[in-house]
Amino acid sequence: MRVFDMHCDTLTVCKKKGWDLDNENCQLRLGDADGFDSYVQLYAVFIPDEVRGERAQSFFGAHHAYYRRQLEHLGPRLYDVPDLAALQKARDRCGMSSILAVEGGCVYGGELGMVEQVYNAGVRSVTLTWNGNNELAGGVMDDGRLTDFGKEAVHEMERLGIAVDVSHLNDESFYDVLAATEKPVFASHSNSRAVCSHPRNLTDDQFCRIAERGGVVGLNFYNQFIADGGEGATFDQMLAHLDHLLQLGGENVLALGSDYDGADIEEIIDRPRKLKNFYQALLDNGFGRELADKIFYWNAYGYFERLLAGEL
Ligand SMILES: [Zn+2]
């Protein structure tokens, strides 16, 4: 079976702790990927809200240098996917393949020219905000809106081929971004707000708007986003999100966005190898293999294939 996971914080945690990306203390363990026919992972550089301007740019620079060193150090155990040919190769390759991403549009330091620099560094997805406001837009715990700079930045991202990730935006900014963009946007790690009321989750309307555009939405494993009350999240509760979003027409939209190494995740799914149990839970609950494979891989694969082909 194949896995395509649209969000983790493993890169940022490992860099901070001075670990390699195959460190056994991580939730996302490189070795686990060997048990799958293909494993594509978006590795995000998470930039805290308070890191701004030139500091944000150099924060990214240090993490990018770390990522390049890790690619050299880990050799074939970590396969970098910056373009379409690499993605197509990753599709039939065991072990971990990685797409570089950034969580926090403050990476641009408020400078439009940085969008192309970030693209040239190999980044193919940027989450516009974290929980607070930044130069681009308003995060879910704050009251900002998409700014003039934010508009220019998303246009430049669309032009270059950096996926626009709307996870973490507040509701107003979410709709601002939709109005300012034409291409499919995606939510890398957000669940259904109808099932769990946390504001980090998407409303039904938001989910449908992403779907209409041809975007994708990754199921987040963070227990606070799975069930109200948080702790003790179960496969049944995770399936409730999938069931609800399928009723909204999510068959070609749903994907995975684990949030490994960035969230409290229950033991049932706190490592990649346990994804096999969750996959089995889908089958046991009447999801056909074709649908399960779409959610675990093909929907996200198709989105990034279109992005890297220049079709988005
Ligand atoms: Zn996040």
UniProtKB/TrEMBL annotation:
PROSITE patterns: RENAL_DIPEPTIDASE_2. One of its GO terms (molecular function) is metallodipeptidase activity. GO terms for biological process: proteolysis. It comes from the Bacteria. It holds the Pfam family Peptidase_M19. This is Membrane dipeptidase.
